[in-house]
Structures are given as structure tokens and as C-alpha cells.
Amino acid sequence: GERSSHRSTELFILAYGTLVAQLCKDFEKDEDINKELDTMGYNIGVRLIDDFLARSNIERCHSFHETVQVIAKVAFKMYLGVTPSVSFWNFIGDECSLFLETNPLVGSVEMPVKHTSLFYSNLICGILRGALEMVCLEVDVWFAQDSLKGDKVTEIRIKFIRRHAEIPFNHPS
Ligand code: MYR
């Protein structure tokens, strides 16, 4: 129910904080920590997609635009309890931003000092990349801004690279 799912979210946030703290000890460069979080996320994403498709009951998407809406409105809501707003589409429509009002993996943790290039929630980028790869969609995902680093907002940028044809899909541009 509501209460137990709330509790497991708290536990997950704590566990995630511990993971990042450990990576800060294991790696010297923030870039390497970001990369490690992305790789871990990727491995989660390739497994999570089955769970997502089974639980969400969504129709297959036929455009990148549609896919991004599903990610924001259904997937983020389901797994992170937040709904990012989608905006800043580029002209040809193959790139846009997900704006998060709150950074969902962050509890009350303080950003580790001396980690000015660390994207604390970079796991999310890898999850999206891995999950989408399993539905034949190749994307780039990265944090463009992070409120934890002192930016005004938290912005995840997602870029369509290619679709490995399988079902009809309207390509951007
Ligand atoms: C399709 O075209 O088959 C549907 C594509 C929807 C893919 C959505 C993938 C989201 C996976 C979970 C993301 C978790 C967010 C933290």
C-alpha cells in the first residue's frame, strides 16, 4: 500500500546515497563516477523494461515524441513518483528536455563537497538508455543541469539517435 511503498522509497534513497558515497571513494574523477552510475543504470534499464511494459499496459509508441511523453507521464510517475515536464524541443524534433521539480533520488543528503562535476542522479540516464535500447530505440541521455550542483533547475536532456526498425515509426526530421 501507500505507506509501505513510501517506506521502500526511503530505503532506496538511503541505499542510493550509500552507493554514490562508495563510488566517491572508489573513483577519483567525477567523470568516472558519472560513467559508472550510467553503466549501472543501463544494466537496470535493460531489465526494468519488461516490468514497465507488463505493468503499464501501454501501446507501442510510433514517434519519439510519443515515447518521451510515456517516459515522463507513465514511467517517471511509476518508478520515481514524479512527473517531469517535457519542453525545449529542438527544431527537428529529435531532442528535448525533461525538467524535474525535485530530484527524486535525493533525500536530505548534502552534495559531497569537491564533486563539482558529479551528476548525483546519473543512474537515471543509464536506466533510460538501457530500457529504450530494448525497444529498439537508441538514445543519448545526460544531465544538462542539476539543482544539486547549484543550477536553478534539474534538466535531463534526451536525444534520439536511431530506431532499429521493427514497427512503423515516424522519424524526426
Ligand atoms: C514502445 O515503443 O514500445 C514503448 C516505449 C516506452 C519506453 C519507456 C521506457 C521507460 C523505462 C523505465 C524508466 C524509468 C525512469 C526512471
Given helix and strand content, the structural type is alpha+beta
Distance between the first and last residues' Cα: 44 Å
Q: Average pLDDT value?
A: 91
Q: Topology as H/E string? A: HHHEEHEE
Uncertain ranges: none
Present as ligands are:
myristic acid
Number of beta strands: 4
What is the overall number of helices? 4
Strand content bin: 15-25%
Write up this protein.
Helices cover 46% and strands 16% of the residues. The protein contains four helices and four strands; from the N terminus they run αααββαββ. The protein has a four-stranded antiparallel sheet, covered by helices on one side. The protein is globular. The mean pLDDT is 91. Bound molecules: myristic acid. The site of myristic acid has 18 residues, from α2, α3 and α4. Myristic acid binds next to α2, α3 and α4.
List the helices and strands and how they pair.
Layout: H1 2-26, H2 30-56, H3 64-80, E1 85-87, E2 95-100, H4 123-133, E3 137-145, E4 154-163
The chain binds myristic acid (MYR).
Residues 48-49, 52, 60-61, 67, 70-71, 75-76, 79-80, 124, 127-128, 131-132, 135 line the site of myristic acid.
Summarize the structure.
By secondary structure, the protein is of the alpha+beta class. Helices cover 46% and strands 16% of the residues. The chain has four helices and four strands; from the N terminus they run αααββαββ.
